[in-house]
Amino acid sequence: MIGRLNMGGPAHQAALLSGRRLDGGRYETLLVHGSLAAGEESMADMAEEEGARLHFLPRLVQPVRPTEDARALAALVRLARAFRPQIVHTHTAKAGFLGRQAALAVRPRPAVVHTYHGHVLEGYFGRLRSSGYLRLERGMARVSDCLVGVSQATVDDLVRLGVAPREKFRVIPLGLDLERLERLDAALGPRLRAELGLADRDVLLLFAGRLAPVKRVDMLLSALALARRSEPRLRLAVAGDGELRPALQEQARRLGLGSAVRFLGYRRDLRPALAAADVAVLSSRSEGTPVFLIEAGAAGLPSVATAVGGVPETIGPGTGFLVAPGDAEAFAAALVGLARGPELRGRLGAAARERALGRYRAERLLRDVAALYEELVA
Question: What CATH number matches the domain at 2-175+361-377, 3.40.1190.20, 1.10.260.40, 3.40.50.2000, 1.20.1380.10?
Fold first, then answer.
């Protein structure tokens, strides 16, 4: 169960774990998902391509709505009792809260697993609201048989916050279908660079993700403006959309970035952008494990990113530069260094590719989760 099948790591992982590839199709799986937020793109077709059996629950919506949430829970209880699962595996906060409650209404009681792809228990809401959510998470942890974090940093955070004791957690990194990036068609890059009006000597930065406050694209734009004072060849492509796009476009105009920044909107297929880019950038103030950096690494791109959540584990040593969250000057300095060092970009990109393909393949994820399921059922 997942809150919504929007573009991103949680939906990608849920789709992989619900299809025919999980232990050769040994499992009969039902993937329950809720409504997308305004402006989001769906990944439901990817889940269908994986062979997932989908059940859409329209009352399952992102914001807290007590009446709708109660109706969604009632629908989930009916569905769970009809399906009678041996395992209930939830992803994302709302699905985790409702899905684990529904699991308790099934007899015999199924094994209950929840995956944290990050968390919103610190730094997102006010003190009282955060404290309330933390109490709910602690309660749900007590009825869970296993809690999974997609990075060691995520697990460490949750243990520090007292969600559950460390022995209840497992670290299972994301797994992605990276074959299409391993065999990336190099001809895709020049075509997109020509569309963007780039010269051969221009250095293209690529950001991909939601245009939401947590991603701090505003800081990225400030860093780019600083970096271009000494390295005007730097350009930025923003692949994604969201509530902040108009404000970010206005900020880019105020900073005098003009054609140096191109907003591409959502790109379902990132391969042309990855082939065209020279450096991947991520400026978030909070992350679990960023899918974009894994895909960029598999495509052979070095990264400049903020050292938050699971980002340091994703990038790893020798594959890019990490800077403190919110530090536009340090971010700009890293961009200038990579712009002026084509050999450095090549060396870091090769290491990023080796790390991504070695650690984040879908096959590894499927093996890890199948082993966990076997253990829980036994």
Answer: 3.40.50.2000
